[in-house]
Amino acid sequence: MKLTEIETLAKKGESDALEFKKSTAQLKSAGETLCAFLNNHGGIIFIGVNDHGAIIGQQVTEHTKREIGSILAKVAPEHNVDVLYVDINKTKQVIVLRATPHIDLQPYTFDSKAYVRVESSTYPMSRDQYQRMSLNYMQQHRSWENGIIKDASIEDLDAEEIMRTITEGIANKRIPADQAASSPERVLKRLGLLKNNQITNAAIVLFAKEPTQRLHQCSIRLARFRGLDKSEFVDSKVVDGNAFTLINAAMSFADLYLPVSSKFGSGKIERIDEPLFPIDALREVFANAVGHRDYAMHTATLSFAIYENRLEIWSPGLPPDGVTFENIKTLHESIPRNRLITKVLYYRKLFESWGRGIQKIITLCTEAGHPEPEFVERTGGVCVILKSKQSIGAPIIYDKQTEERIKLTDRQKEILSIIKEKRQATLPEIIQALTDKAAKRTVQRELARLKDFGLISLRGGTKGSVWEIIAP
Q1: pLDDT, greater one: 460 or 213
Q2: Cα-flanking dihedrals φ and ψ of residue 386, to 5°?
Q3: What is the rounded CA–CA span in Å between residue 460 and residue 454?
Q4: Maximum distance among all alpha carbons in the chain?
């Protein structure tokens, strides 16, 4: 912090996040206010600024620094208070104490007493408020996401993804700019993802390179069905990975199988592509599924299924405390099941608050012309059903080599139908069954093309070879 920043803040006067102390003779009072800031949203104390905001500074000696250290030692539990010394001339400095709270560690105490900040004053915390915050602390520290992975280390985590959380959080204005950190370990501490310097379950879920080595539930099942039920697969896969990998996999699967309409704006030559379901709505649904699932159900996994008329996203575990299927569509306050995980997704702008996120999904889907989404209980979990305003249509086929969309000819479609009906078919059988007869060489060329697309395969010897569909 620079002297010019101190001057700017000092002119604004004291507030619920700013306090002035004339000198370190008021250190005890400063400790009480630091505690109050940590029990709120954080704040700054200037020592060397009088009550009127005039910067007077004070001399700082080794004894002064020891006194400050002694005061900070009386603040509990482990806290994040930065101490800065800003020169105002050759002999005097302003001491800056900047408190950044961890919500999951509140309530904080100073000299075994808790304090709160109201406007520009500091008061002892009431017994009722202290009990409420203590209960919340106990709930969080007994929660699954605070469990320790004893054999895990920071090397098991994706450092780039960790640092991206801070940079994107600041860019999204969901993390203060002064919270920038220089190392993955420091970021994890600020996010509350280390416990006694050990890796937590939440850190593995969010950032592990290979989370399923320790937590088997870090996966998602993706499926595209033909028709309205599960009787026939078109595609099915399971993806393992951390929270960001799973969300990206679900978004990619949706992009692969959901139709996109194209139009040209009035008076414009650029084509505008519009996906069937709004991208922001899908991202919010997937982030909710990842953030709110019950990870203690370690044998269950997320799932995303695409049918002819709807999408279904299932997440293990019933809604968090305070949320029911009756009030889930209305704005409400609640304590999320996984506060640490959802907080990181919120910083990355993948996730809104529980109430706002549900409203966002509903609004985006209905504005796009779809029926209002449904939220139902299914086999011990929450299923989000996004009904489509139109038929999702036949699955789009992609070339497995080029990943480009394939448009099959009528003859190619008929050949596939023949092979599918017979389960296995020889070349003569295919030629015989075709509606419009074609030369042997023509059919061989079509079969070779379908094989290149990755849709069929040839099995057996030269004389007894048969063609079959590649599952699914």
Answers
A1: 213
A2: -105, 100
A3: 18
A4: 101
Q: CA-to-CA distance for 199 and 430, rounded, in angstroms?
A: 59
Radius of gyration (Cα) for the chain, nearest Å? 30
Neighbours of 345 (CB within 10 A): 24
Angle, helix 339-347 to helix 279-292, in steps of 10 degrees: 150
Phi-psi sector, 151: left (phi>0), alpha (psi -120 to 50), beta: alpha
Side by side, which strands form the sheet with 302-306?
Answer: 233-240, 219-225, 302-306, 310-316, 381-387, 374-378
**The amino acid at 22:** K
Alpha-carbon separation of residue 346 from 5, 99, 343 (angstroms): 29, 22, 5
What does 408-471 look like in DSSP terms, one character per residue? --HHHHHHHHHHHHHSSB-HHHHHHH-SS---HHHHHHHHHHHHHTTSEEEES-TTT-EEEEPP
Q: What is the DSSP string of 51-100?
A: TTS-B--B---HHHHHHHHHHHTTEESS-EEEEEEEESSSS-EEEEEEEE
Closest Cα to residue 259, out of 394, 100, 109? 394
Q: Is the pTM of this model over 0.70?
A: no
Q: What is the 3-state secondary structure (H, E, C) of 98-161?
A: EEECCHHHCCCEECCECEEEECCEEEECCHHHHHHHHHHHHHHHCCHHHCECCCCCHHHECHHH
CA atoms within 13 A on the CB side of 134: 10
Q: What is the dihedral of CA 177, 181, 187, 189, to 10 degrees?
A: -100
Closest CA to 375 of 364, 367, 387: 387
Write the pLDDT tens digit of every residue in 229-243: 888 888 889 999 999
pLDDT digits (tens, 9 = 90+) for 46-71: 999 999 999 999 999 999 999 999 99
| Phi/psi-derived region of residue 133, left when phi > 0, alpha when psi is between -120 and 50, beta in every other case | alpha
